[in-house]
Fold:
Amino acid sequence: MAIFLGASGAAILSGRIIKRFSARVMLGTGIVTFIVGLVMLTMVKIDASFTYLFIAMSLIGIGSGFNNPVIKAIIVSKATLSRMNVITFTNSVIENVAQRLGASFALVGFALFAAKGNGVNALANTSLIFIALAVGSLLFLVLIPKKIEGIHEVNERVEGVQEVNDSTITSIKVDSNEKKTIKI
Structure:
């Protein structure tokens, strides 16, 4: 529940402030928040309070949720209008598969570590693996564009739009700033 609440709240916040910061800053903030939550899990002891675990899991959710709107904005900004439905569908499929594989990996990793007899250390060891993966993802931030087309930069792609009102047809071509109105 803590992960879901954190992810939901962070996705709403991220979507609202995406124009103010670069994509790299937004993704970096999300990844670092995610790592902080994982680091907190590595320090869990058998007598850890519910509040401590809730905060750690919330930070993991916040980090994950903070990144989702940014990633989707980057993907959609690179798509042509004619391929937008295919791109968004493919993104959803890949995202769902990655979530299922990640959860399965975490469960198997935890089970393997727990088989040694100490469930608390299993949580810490599994978290260490995910910390290494998350730190590795920080290295890829340099590949992320600083500005997202359509959010940070306005690059109109509208072409050949026609509006029909009563007996007037308006043809608009934004890139060359052309607008023609024909009355019938």
Q: What stands out?
A: The longest strand covers residues 159-165. The radius of gyration is 23 Å. The longest helix spans residues 84-114.
